[in-house]
C-alpha cells in the first residue's frame, strides 16, 4: 500500500477511535492531527475537511463490500457493515453539522437501485424519467430508513432489520417496475387498436 493511502487510513482510524470517546461534532481537525501525530497541513493535503474524511471512510469501507458482493446482497452487507461500526456511523449519520454522508450514501444507493431496475426490466424499456422517479423514491426510502435506524441507535437487531427491510424493498421495487411495464404494454396495445 502506498504511503498516501497509509496516511489516509491512519487519519481515518484516528477519527473512528476518537468517536468512541467524544461526540463527532466536538472532534476538530486539531484533535485528529494531535492524536495521530501528524500536522494540519498533512491532513488538509489528503482531506478538504472532516466531512470529506467521513465520506472517504465510507467509500473505502464500502468499496471493499461492493467488490465482494453480489448485487442483491449489497444493501444487506451495507446494513451489516454500518451495524458492526455503529458507534461511528450513528455519530456520522446523526451529526448536527452539514451531513455530506447522507448525500453521499444517496448517490451510491441510487446507482445500486438503478442497476436493480435495469435488471428487473431485462430487455423491456422504460423512459429515463420513469426510471429516475422510481430510483429516487426507493433511494429516499432506503437512505431514510437507514438514517432513522441510526438516529434510534441501531437498536433493532441486524438480522431482524435485514429480514424485514431487504425483502420488502426488493419486492416493492419489482412490483412497481412490473406494474409500470404492464401499464405501458396495455397503453401500447390500446393505442395500436385505436390506430387500426
How would you describe this structure to a colleague?
- By secondary structure, this protein is an all-alpha fold.
- The protein folds into two domains: 1-47, Arc Repressor Mutant, subunit A (Orthogonal Bundle); 59-195, no CATH class.
- Helix content is 78%, strand content 0%.
- It is built from nine helices and no strands.
- The longest helix has 38 residues, at 158-195.
- It starts with a helix and ends with a helix.
- The model has no long low-confidence stretch (mean pLDDT 86).
Give a brief rundown of this model:
The protein is mostly helical and 196 residues long.
Topology:
Layout: H1 3-19, H2 29-36, H3 40-46, H4 50-67, H5 74-84, H6 86-93, H7 100-121, H8 128-151, H9 158-195
Helix pairs in contact: 1-2, 1-4, 4-5, 4-7, 5-6, 5-9, 7-8, 7-9
Bin the strand percentage. Answer: under 5%
What is the strand tally?
0
Any idea how many domains?
2
* Average pLDDT rating: 86
Number of H- or I-type helical stretches: 9
Report the helical percentage.
over 70%
Low-confidence stretches: none
Characterize the main sheet.
Answer: none
Global geometry: elongated
For the termini, the CA-CA separation is 67 Å
Structural class: mainly alpha
Order of helices and strands: HHHHHHHHH
Kindly list the characteristics that best describe this protein.
196 residues; mainly alpha; Arc Repressor Mutant, subunit A; 78% helix
Amino acid at each position: 500500500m502506498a504511503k498516501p493511502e497509509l496516511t489516509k487510513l491512519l487519519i481515518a482510524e484516528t477519527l473512528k477511535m476518537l468517536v468512541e470517546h467524544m461526540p463527532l461534532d466536538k472532534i476538530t481537525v486539531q484533535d485528529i492531527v494531535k492524536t495521530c501525530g501528524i500536522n494540519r497541513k498533512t491532513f488538509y493535503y489528503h482531506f478538504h475537511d472532516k466531512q470529506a474524511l467521513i465520506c472517504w471512510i465510507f467509500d473505502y469501507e464500502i468499496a471493499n463490500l461492493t467488490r465482494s458482493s453480489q448485487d442483491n446482497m449489497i444493501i444487506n452487507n451495507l446494513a451489516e457493515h454500518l451495524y458492526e461500526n455503529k458507534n461511528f456511523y450513528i455519530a456520522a449519520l446523526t451529526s448536527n453539522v452539514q451531513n455530506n454522508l447522507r448525500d453521499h450514501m444517496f448517490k451510491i444507493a441510487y446507482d445500486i437501485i438503478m442497476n436493480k431496475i435495469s435488471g428487473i426490466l431485462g430487455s423491456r424499456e422504460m423512459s429515463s424519467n420513469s426510471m429516475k422517479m422510481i430510483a429516487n423514491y426507493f433511494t429516499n426510502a432506503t437512505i431514510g430508513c437507514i438514517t432513522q435506524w441510526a438516529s434510534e441507535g441501531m437498536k433493532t437487531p441486524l438480522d431482524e432489520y435485514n429480514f424485514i427491510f431487504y425483502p420488502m424493498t426488493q419486492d416493492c421495487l419489482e412490483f412497481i417496475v412490473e406494474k409500470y411495464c404492464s401499464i405501458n404494454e396495455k397503453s401500447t396495445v390500446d393505442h395500436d387498436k385505436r390506430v387500426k
